[in-house]
Request: fold
Amino acid sequence: MAVNPSDDDKPLVYLARLSAAEKEGLYAVADAFPALHIRKEFHDTIPDVVVDRLIMATDFLKAAQQLVKNAASDADYRGAVNRGYYSIHHAIRAMMLSHKHYETDGHAEAITELKSLLVDAATRNRCGLTQDIIKDITKA
Reply:
């Protein structure tokens, strides 16, 4: 079951969705008012949001596996592909937030940002992806 942020968490999840330029603007204001602790709250929240994204990815993967296991029609297989796609999408969102402290805005941007992450050899090694899979991702 995916974790849904409470109303108290929503401002912090919002912070994760800001672009780098938007965050810097917010941080400039925050630095003028250090008692707000915005920088610290944002960075303290990232692991929780990453875990939320990974839980969603896992939930979608389990749903895809269940659909394949019990498939009785082409629609079931299409549903499994859809759930598998969203599993990957939410895993990419978690990676971006974890590595770049940035949450992508949309599917195409997620793929583009994943490609940029995989340029770094250390990141590629931590991901555990084979060279063939990395090559396929960078072609997409």
Q: What stands out?
A: The chain has seven helices and no strands. The chain has one domain: 10-139. Helices lie at 10-17, 20-32, 38-69, 74-100, 107-117, 121-127, 131-139.
